[in-house]
Amino acid sequence: MSYRLLETQTDEQFVEQGTHVLIESVSHCIKEKNRCFLGLSGGSTPQPMYEGLATSKWIDWTKVSIFLVDERYVPITHQASNQRMVRESLLAKIKVSEKQLLFPDTSLPIDECVQQYESALATLLQRGVPDIVTLGLGEDGHTASLFPPLTDDALGSRLVIHTETERFAVRNRISLTLPILEQSTGRIFFLAGHKKKMLWEKMLDAPKDIVRFPAQTLMDEKTTVVTQW
Ligand code: 6PG
Predict the structure, then answer these.
(1) Which residue of 51, 119, 181, 182 sits 20 to 30 Å from the alpha carbon of 134, by its own alpha carbon?
(2) Which of ligand 1's atoms lies nearest the C-alpha of 82?
């Protein structure tokens, strides 16, 4: 059994389908576990799905803990901040307390930021693995902020690491590692656009090589992929 692929034909269908999968996954998780540890990726693609999630009447937000799959090492006010995007698109529209939220504190020096975030996440995950994580795919094959070729620590026993990229605007990142993403109970990829289609097909055709294509190891029965290209 492999991943569930939901192909849409228009932007509207993509957002509608992606939002539906997200709401369905969170609601089902709360029904099954009376809680939901929800990890959100950043970037531009998932933003309308987070706005859609905020409109759901079926989610008891008191049961949800929200954390970031990755973050750019910028102030929270910066346009590229994933925390800013998640607060504006989702959190501003639902009733959650700050105690339910885990974000890297990017006002700290990067190593302290990573250490503090990893410690907070480890405390949350003492009660179980991530229930649902949303993920994207970069044109270079990265997912979360795990940029190919992956370093050993991206594949190691840490929960959270500092990564760097020369290719994208914000060089320094904070990212969950691949093993914790693999342990997640449910994963939802939102992929849109021709460049992503090219990368996606190249990844699927390539021999397994998670250093080059980390997302390859996340394509299993726990994963739903929503596409529009
Ligand atoms: C980030 C994301 C990253 C994203 C891809 C795709 O912080 O940038 O977590 O992994 O999913 O880069 O980004 P877009 O959705 O903006 O294309």
Answers:
(1) 119
(2) 7
Query: What separation in Å is there between the alpha carbon of 79 and the centre of ligand 1?
Result: 14
Give 160's strand partners: 176
Task: Work out the angle at residue 4's Cα, subtended by the Cα atoms of residues 8 and 200, and round it to the nearest 5 degrees.
Answer: 65
Q: Select from 11, 41, 86 the residue to mutate for testing ligand 1; criterion: most ligand atoms less than 8 Å from CB.
A: 41
Give the whole-angstrom CA distance, residue 79 versus residue 163. Answer: 20
Query: Is the previous residue joined to 109 through a cis bond, with omega within 30 degrees of 0?
Result: no
3-state SS class at 97? coil
The pLDDT-based confidence of 63 (bands split at 50, 70, 90) is very high
> 70: Cβ below 6 Å to ligand 1?
yes
CA 205 vs. chain centroid, Å, equals: 24
**Strands of 36-40's sheet, edge to edge?**
4-8, 223-228, 186-192, 132-135, 36-40, 64-68, 101-102
